Amino acid sequence: MKYALVIAGLAGGLVAATEKATQRAEPDFSKVELKATHLSESVWMVEGMGGNIGVCAGDDGVFVIDDQFAPLAPKVKAAISGISPKPVRFLFNTHWHGDHTGGNLAMGEAGAVIVAHDNVRQRLSTDQVIAAFGGRRVPASPTKALPVVTFKDGVSFHLNGDDIEVIHLPAAHTDGDSAVHFVKADVIHTGDTLVNGGYPIFDYSSGGTIDGYLRAQEKVLSIAGPKTKIIPGHGALTDKAGLQLAHDTLQKLRDRIVGLVDQGKTLAEVQAAKPTAEVESKWGTGMVKGDLFVDMAYNSYLAEKKLKP
Question: What angle do CA 35, 40, 44 make, to 5 degrees?
């Protein structure tokens, strides 16, 4: 699924926009087809419209990571049923954005136990504003769509012959991001701390920062091995080498932008310097283009600096 449409639903609404616009347009969900890819004995990746879904299925039941947009809930359910006839036992949210949590209500009403970081429940349970997207307002989710089990630093599941280790990645894409590591299967779901083939988003009004994003990727790199399969939040399945390339590219962009910020340049001046020019043809094919990326990097960096003593 193209990242343009994915980010169109970042906040749970549906936005088709350039980097400066917030005009709303609803995609045709009836045309969305979900694709399941078998990664190991018990783990699958499901692609559609929205964040990539992870599924672990076996004798102990079904464990699902993220659930895309609300209108896709029947298709997501059907895709999971095609993997296993058993009901979803646990649903894990990698962060709060609606292209990853839109199906929570349907899953929760069907009996799944929703699990996420403390900050995910806090943000889903209260009205939110996303400054990077024109100050978009996102209403609180219904009670049945909220995580009922939350954690501070990490949590473990022991299902289907695997140890599933969840690690909180602070101040990255948001303040509630987590990576999910299937230890035996050697698969890691990064949530939106990796966009494979596009600009990442730093939702600075939700605590996301460019430096925290880089630290999150470094944490995942420290866990991954040379044969680890990596499910990104968006984009195609990748591996440690793919994550390393994305990290190194982001680090270069960060250093250019931060260097200009530290010289006292305004946002407009940093954007005019075109620090992302060399990757625009690859990363700028969707909604998020260089100027919006620079805006998010600039504002997230300044916000993080203000928080430091």
Answer: 25
